[in-house]
Amino acid sequence: MSLPVVTPGETDTYEDPLDLINEIDELKKEKDASIMAHFYVDGDIQDVADYTGDSLKLARDCTQVTTGTIVFAGVHFMGESAKIMNPAKRVLIPDMLAGCSLADSCPADQLQVFQEQLRAEGRKFDTVAYINTTAAVKSLCDWIVTSGNAAEIIDRVPKDREILFVPDQHLGRYLMEVSGRKMILWPGSCMVHEVFSIQGLVRAKRNNPGSVVIAHPECPQNILEITDFIGGTEKMRQHVMSVKEPTTFLVATESAMIHAFQKSAPQHNFIPVPGIIASTGETCACNRCPHMARNTLQKVRDCLKNESPEIEWRDYFQQARAVLDKSLLK
Ligand code: SF4
What we know:
With about 325 residues, this protein is an alpha/beta fold.
Protein backbone atom coordinates (compact mmCIF):
# COMPACT_ATOMS: atom_id res chain seq x y z
CA MET A 1 0.00 0.00 0.00
CA SER A 2 1.39 3.48 -0.83
CA LEU A 3 1.56 6.25 1.74
CA PRO A 4 -1.28 8.77 1.50
CA VAL A 5 -0.32 12.08 -0.08
CA VAL A 6 -0.95 14.92 2.37
CA THR A 7 -0.71 18.56 1.33
CA PRO A 8 0.00 21.37 3.81
CA GLY A 9 -3.13 22.03 5.87
CA GLU A 10 -4.45 18.49 5.42
CA THR A 11 -4.28 15.92 8.17
CA ASP A 12 -4.44 12.20 7.61
CA THR A 13 -4.22 9.84 10.55
CA TYR A 14 -3.71 6.09 10.35
CA GLU A 15 -6.88 3.97 10.31
CA ASP A 16 -7.04 0.20 10.03
CA PRO A 17 -7.58 -0.66 6.33
CA LEU A 18 -9.94 -3.53 7.24
CA ASP A 19 -12.20 -1.15 9.22
CA LEU A 20 -12.14 1.28 6.32
CA ILE A 21 -13.05 -1.45 3.83
CA ASN A 22 -16.02 -2.54 5.98
CA GLU A 23 -17.16 1.05 6.37
CA ILE A 24 -16.91 1.64 2.61
CA ASP A 25 -18.96 -1.50 1.89
CA GLU A 26 -21.69 -0.29 4.27
CA LEU A 27 -21.67 3.24 2.86
CA LYS A 28 -21.93 1.96 -0.72
CA LYS A 29 -25.25 0.29 0.18
CA GLU A 30 -26.51 3.18 2.28
CA LYS A 31 -25.70 5.80 -0.38
CA ASP A 32 -26.63 3.68 -3.42
CA ALA A 33 -23.12 4.11 -4.83
CA SER A 34 -20.72 2.24 -7.11
CA ILE A 35 -16.96 2.69 -6.99
CA MET A 36 -14.88 2.87 -10.15
CA ALA A 37 -11.11 2.62 -9.76
CA HIS A 38 -8.43 3.24 -12.34
CA PHE A 39 -5.64 0.65 -12.53
CA TYR A 40 -3.20 3.32 -11.30
CA VAL A 41 -4.81 3.81 -7.87
CA ASP A 42 -3.72 1.88 -4.83
CA GLY A 43 -4.48 -1.86 -4.90
CA ASP A 44 -6.66 -1.65 -1.77
CA ILE A 45 -8.98 0.78 -3.55
CA GLN A 46 -9.09 -1.45 -6.65
CA ASP A 47 -10.16 -4.30 -4.35
CA VAL A 48 -13.17 -2.39 -2.95
CA ALA A 49 -14.20 -1.11 -6.38
CA ASP A 50 -17.14 -2.42 -8.42
CA TYR A 51 -15.38 -1.58 -11.67
CA THR A 52 -11.65 -1.42 -12.40
CA GLY A 53 -9.91 -0.72 -15.65
CA ASP A 54 -8.18 1.75 -17.91
CA SER A 55 -9.72 4.99 -19.13
CA LEU A 56 -11.54 3.40 -22.08
CA LYS A 57 -13.07 0.54 -20.11
CA LEU A 58 -14.15 2.80 -17.26
CA ALA A 59 -15.64 5.41 -19.60
CA ARG A 60 -17.74 2.62 -21.16
CA ASP A 61 -18.56 1.05 -17.78
CA CYS A 62 -19.91 4.40 -16.55
CA THR A 63 -22.85 4.03 -18.90
CA GLN A 64 -23.78 0.66 -17.32
CA VAL A 65 -23.85 1.82 -13.68
CA THR A 66 -27.26 1.32 -12.09
CA THR A 67 -26.69 3.09 -8.75
CA GLY A 68 -27.52 6.78 -8.33
CA THR A 69 -23.96 7.74 -7.34
CA ILE A 70 -20.55 7.00 -8.84
CA VAL A 71 -17.37 7.44 -6.80
CA PHE A 72 -14.51 7.75 -9.29
CA ALA A 73 -11.11 6.94 -7.79
CA GLY A 74 -8.74 8.34 -10.38
CA VAL A 75 -7.93 11.89 -11.40
CA HIS A 76 -10.13 14.92 -12.06
CA PHE A 77 -10.55 14.59 -15.84
CA MET A 78 -11.77 11.00 -15.33
CA GLY A 79 -14.46 12.23 -12.95
CA GLU A 80 -15.48 14.76 -15.61
CA SER A 81 -15.70 12.00 -18.23
CA ALA A 82 -17.87 9.89 -15.88
CA LYS A 83 -20.26 12.83 -15.42
CA ILE A 84 -20.32 13.58 -19.14
CA MET A 85 -21.10 9.96 -20.03
CA ASN A 86 -23.74 9.67 -17.34
CA PRO A 87 -25.17 13.14 -16.56
CA ALA A 88 -28.08 11.82 -14.47
CA LYS A 89 -25.72 10.33 -11.90
CA ARG A 90 -24.06 12.14 -9.06
CA VAL A 91 -20.27 11.78 -9.57
CA LEU A 92 -18.01 12.12 -6.54
CA ILE A 93 -14.21 12.03 -6.53
CA PRO A 94 -12.15 11.33 -3.40
CA ASP A 95 -9.81 14.31 -3.91
CA MET A 96 -10.57 17.39 -6.01
CA LEU A 97 -6.83 18.13 -6.20
CA ALA A 98 -6.00 14.87 -7.98
CA GLY A 99 -5.02 16.41 -11.32
CA CYS A 100 -2.86 15.19 -14.19
CA SER A 101 0.38 16.71 -15.47
CA LEU A 102 -0.46 15.54 -18.98
CA ALA A 103 -3.92 17.14 -19.04
CA ASP A 104 -2.43 20.32 -17.54
CA SER A 105 0.12 20.52 -20.36
CA CYS A 106 -2.67 21.41 -22.81
CA PRO A 107 -4.84 24.26 -21.47
CA ALA A 108 -8.04 24.84 -23.46
CA ASP A 109 -7.33 28.53 -24.15
CA GLN A 110 -3.89 27.76 -25.62
CA LEU A 111 -5.29 24.97 -27.77
CA GLN A 112 -7.99 27.29 -29.10
CA VAL A 113 -5.43 29.94 -30.07
CA PHE A 114 -3.29 27.33 -31.87
CA GLN A 115 -6.30 25.91 -33.74
CA GLU A 116 -7.24 29.43 -34.88
CA GLN A 117 -3.68 30.01 -36.14
CA LEU A 118 -3.80 26.80 -38.18
CA ARG A 119 -7.21 27.71 -39.63
CA ALA A 120 -5.95 31.20 -40.50
CA GLU A 121 -3.14 29.47 -42.48
CA GLY A 122 -5.87 27.65 -44.43
CA ARG A 123 -4.97 24.22 -43.05
CA LYS A 124 -7.67 21.56 -42.95
CA PHE A 125 -7.27 19.35 -39.91
CA ASP A 126 -9.04 17.24 -37.30
CA THR A 127 -8.02 17.62 -33.67
CA VAL A 128 -7.54 14.23 -32.03
CA ALA A 129 -7.20 14.32 -28.25
CA TYR A 130 -5.96 11.62 -25.95
CA ILE A 131 -8.57 11.01 -23.24
CA ASN A 132 -6.16 12.49 -20.65
CA THR A 133 -7.44 16.01 -21.27
CA THR A 134 -9.87 18.29 -19.49
CA ALA A 135 -13.51 18.38 -20.58
CA ALA A 136 -12.91 21.94 -21.86
CA VAL A 137 -10.22 20.60 -24.23
CA LYS A 138 -12.39 17.65 -25.28
CA SER A 139 -15.11 20.10 -26.28
CA LEU A 140 -12.66 21.71 -28.77
CA CYS A 141 -11.73 18.41 -30.44
CA ASP A 142 -13.10 16.19 -33.20
CA TRP A 143 -12.07 12.84 -31.73
CA ILE A 144 -11.07 11.40 -28.37
CA VAL A 145 -8.74 8.41 -28.22
CA THR A 146 -7.36 6.16 -25.51
CA SER A 147 -4.18 4.14 -25.89
CA GLY A 148 -6.52 1.17 -26.49
CA ASN A 149 -8.51 2.53 -29.47
CA ALA A 150 -6.20 5.21 -30.93
CA ALA A 151 -5.11 3.33 -34.06
CA GLU A 152 -8.73 2.51 -34.97
CA ILE A 153 -9.94 6.13 -34.48
CA ILE A 154 -7.06 7.60 -36.47
CA ASP A 155 -8.12 5.36 -39.34
CA ARG A 156 -11.52 7.12 -39.26
CA VAL A 157 -10.01 10.58 -39.87
CA PRO A 158 -10.42 11.36 -43.61
CA LYS A 159 -7.09 10.94 -45.43
CA ASP A 160 -7.28 14.43 -46.96
CA ARG A 161 -7.19 16.09 -43.53
CA GLU A 162 -4.17 16.71 -41.31
CA ILE A 163 -4.22 15.53 -37.70
CA LEU A 164 -3.45 17.78 -34.74
CA PHE A 165 -2.73 15.34 -31.90
CA VAL A 166 -2.90 16.57 -28.29
CA PRO A 167 -1.55 16.47 -25.63
CA ASP A 168 0.95 13.57 -25.47
CA GLN A 169 3.88 13.92 -27.86
CA HIS A 170 5.22 10.41 -27.14
CA LEU A 171 1.92 8.67 -27.79
CA GLY A 172 1.48 10.88 -30.89
CA ARG A 173 4.92 9.90 -32.23
CA TYR A 174 4.17 6.23 -31.62
CA LEU A 175 0.81 6.56 -33.40
CA MET A 176 2.46 8.28 -36.37
CA GLU A 177 4.67 5.20 -36.74
CA VAL A 178 1.82 2.70 -36.32
CA SER A 179 -0.66 4.49 -38.59
CA GLY A 180 1.72 5.98 -41.14
CA ARG A 181 -0.18 9.32 -40.79
CA LYS A 182 1.76 12.55 -40.36
CA MET A 183 0.63 14.57 -37.34
CA ILE A 184 1.12 17.96 -35.78
CA LEU A 185 2.12 17.07 -32.20
CA TRP A 186 1.30 19.10 -29.11
CA PRO A 187 4.44 19.10 -26.90
CA GLY A 188 2.87 17.59 -23.74
CA SER A 189 3.90 14.55 -21.73
CA CYS A 190 3.09 12.60 -18.58
CA MET A 191 5.46 13.17 -15.66
CA VAL A 192 5.33 9.47 -14.70
CA HIS A 193 6.08 7.94 -18.10
CA GLU A 194 8.62 10.64 -18.90
CA VAL A 195 11.02 9.56 -16.15
CA PHE A 196 11.77 5.94 -17.03
CA SER A 197 15.50 5.50 -17.08
CA ILE A 198 16.93 3.84 -20.17
CA GLN A 199 20.08 2.90 -18.21
CA GLY A 200 17.88 1.43 -15.45
CA LEU A 201 15.92 -0.60 -18.01
CA VAL A 202 19.08 -1.94 -19.68
CA ARG A 203 20.45 -2.89 -16.25
CA ALA A 204 17.17 -4.59 -15.27
CA LYS A 205 17.25 -6.59 -18.52
CA ARG A 206 20.83 -7.64 -17.83
CA ASN A 207 19.97 -8.66 -14.26
CA ASN A 208 16.91 -10.65 -15.40
CA PRO A 209 17.94 -12.79 -18.37
CA GLY A 210 14.97 -13.89 -20.45
CA SER A 211 12.74 -11.10 -19.11
CA VAL A 212 10.16 -9.42 -21.35
CA VAL A 213 9.71 -5.62 -21.43
CA ILE A 214 6.15 -4.28 -21.60
CA ALA A 215 5.60 -0.51 -21.88
CA HIS A 216 2.86 2.06 -22.20
CA PRO A 217 2.98 4.13 -25.41
CA GLU A 218 3.17 7.31 -23.27
CA CYS A 219 6.83 6.33 -22.61
CA PRO A 220 9.59 8.17 -24.50
CA GLN A 221 10.84 6.71 -27.78
CA ASN A 222 14.16 5.42 -26.35
CA ILE A 223 12.20 3.16 -23.95
CA LEU A 224 9.76 1.99 -26.64
CA GLU A 225 12.66 1.10 -28.96
CA ILE A 226 13.80 -1.71 -26.63
CA THR A 227 10.30 -2.79 -25.57
CA ASP A 228 8.93 -6.22 -26.51
CA PHE A 229 5.23 -5.35 -26.14
CA ILE A 230 3.71 -1.84 -26.38
CA GLY A 231 0.12 -1.27 -25.32
CA GLY A 232 -2.28 0.66 -23.10
CA THR A 233 -2.93 -0.70 -19.62
CA GLU A 234 -5.78 -3.03 -20.64
CA LYS A 235 -3.84 -4.35 -23.65
CA MET A 236 -0.85 -5.05 -21.42
CA ARG A 237 -3.09 -6.89 -18.97
CA GLN A 238 -4.57 -9.02 -21.76
CA HIS A 239 -1.07 -9.73 -23.05
CA VAL A 240 0.34 -10.99 -19.73
CA MET A 241 -2.79 -13.14 -19.30
CA SER A 242 -2.22 -14.69 -22.73
CA VAL A 243 1.33 -15.82 -21.80
CA LYS A 244 0.97 -19.18 -20.01
CA GLU A 245 4.66 -19.92 -19.32
CA PRO A 246 5.84 -18.22 -16.06
CA THR A 247 7.76 -15.14 -17.20
CA THR A 248 9.53 -12.14 -15.68
CA PHE A 249 8.03 -8.93 -17.06
CA LEU A 250 9.79 -5.58 -16.73
CA VAL A 251 6.94 -3.09 -16.54
CA ALA A 252 7.28 0.50 -17.83
CA THR A 253 4.10 2.14 -16.63
CA GLU A 254 2.65 3.45 -13.37
CA SER A 255 3.70 0.94 -10.71
CA ALA A 256 0.22 0.45 -9.15
CA MET A 257 -0.66 -1.35 -12.39
CA ILE A 258 1.37 -4.29 -11.10
CA HIS A 259 -1.47 -5.04 -8.65
CA ALA A 260 -3.86 -5.67 -11.56
CA PHE A 261 -1.24 -7.74 -13.41
CA GLN A 262 -0.60 -9.93 -10.37
CA LYS A 263 -4.31 -10.54 -9.85
CA SER A 264 -4.89 -11.38 -13.53
CA ALA A 265 -1.75 -13.45 -14.18
CA PRO A 266 -0.28 -14.67 -10.86
CA GLN A 267 2.04 -17.14 -12.60
CA HIS A 268 4.39 -14.30 -13.61
CA ASN A 269 6.93 -12.09 -11.86
CA PHE A 270 6.49 -8.33 -12.44
CA ILE A 271 9.33 -5.85 -11.87
CA PRO A 272 8.79 -2.09 -12.25
CA VAL A 273 11.27 -0.44 -14.62
CA PRO A 274 13.29 2.10 -12.63
CA GLY A 275 12.64 5.80 -13.01
CA ILE A 276 15.16 8.60 -12.68
CA ILE A 277 15.00 11.29 -9.97
CA ALA A 278 15.35 14.60 -11.84
CA SER A 279 17.00 16.47 -8.95
CA THR A 280 19.75 13.90 -8.26
CA GLY A 281 19.96 11.81 -11.43
CA GLU A 282 19.63 8.65 -9.29
CA THR A 283 17.31 5.83 -10.28
CA CYS A 284 14.37 4.69 -8.18
CA ALA A 285 11.69 2.01 -8.58
CA CYS A 286 8.70 4.04 -7.42
CA ASN A 287 7.12 5.37 -10.65
CA ARG A 288 3.97 6.32 -8.73
CA CYS A 289 1.73 9.02 -10.12
CA PRO A 290 1.47 11.58 -7.29
CA HIS A 291 -2.00 12.56 -8.51
CA MET A 292 -3.36 9.01 -8.49
CA ALA A 293 -1.70 8.50 -5.09
CA ARG A 294 -3.91 11.25 -3.64
CA ASN A 295 -6.69 8.63 -3.64
CA THR A 296 -6.70 6.77 -0.33
CA LEU A 297 -9.19 4.47 1.38
CA GLN A 298 -9.87 7.24 3.92
CA LYS A 299 -10.75 9.71 1.19
CA VAL A 300 -12.99 7.16 -0.56
CA ARG A 301 -14.80 6.62 2.75
CA ASP A 302 -15.02 10.35 3.45
CA CYS A 303 -16.39 11.28 0.05
CA LEU A 304 -19.06 8.58 0.36
CA LYS A 305 -19.95 9.74 3.85
CA ASN A 306 -19.96 13.49 3.06
CA GLU A 307 -21.30 13.06 -0.50
CA SER A 308 -18.58 15.48 -1.58
CA PRO A 309 -16.54 16.63 -3.49
CA GLU A 310 -18.81 16.40 -6.49
CA ILE A 311 -18.20 17.01 -10.20
CA GLU A 312 -20.70 19.66 -11.27
CA TRP A 313 -22.16 19.78 -14.79
CA ARG A 314 -20.70 22.58 -16.98
CA ASP A 315 -22.07 24.01 -20.26
CA TYR A 316 -19.19 22.71 -22.38
CA PHE A 317 -19.79 19.12 -21.15
CA GLN A 318 -22.53 18.80 -23.80
CA GLN A 319 -20.10 19.32 -26.69
CA ALA A 320 -17.49 17.14 -24.98
CA ARG A 321 -20.13 14.42 -24.74
CA ALA A 322 -20.89 14.52 -28.46
CA VAL A 323 -17.17 13.97 -29.19
CA LEU A 324 -16.81 11.21 -26.57
CA ASP A 325 -19.95 9.43 -27.81
CA LYS A 326 -18.85 9.33 -31.43
CA SER A 327 -15.34 8.22 -30.42
CA LEU A 328 -15.92 5.68 -27.68
CA LEU A 329 -19.39 4.27 -28.13
CA LYS A 330 -19.72 3.80 -31.89
S1 SF4 B 1 0.09 8.74 -14.75
FE1 SF4 B 1 0.51 10.59 -16.01
S2 SF4 B 1 -1.20 10.67 -17.43
FE2 SF4 B 1 -1.84 9.28 -15.76
S3 SF4 B 1 -2.88 10.64 -14.29
FE3 SF4 B 1 -0.74 10.53 -13.65
S4 SF4 B 1 0.21 12.34 -14.62
FE4 SF4 B 1 -1.72 11.98 -15.66
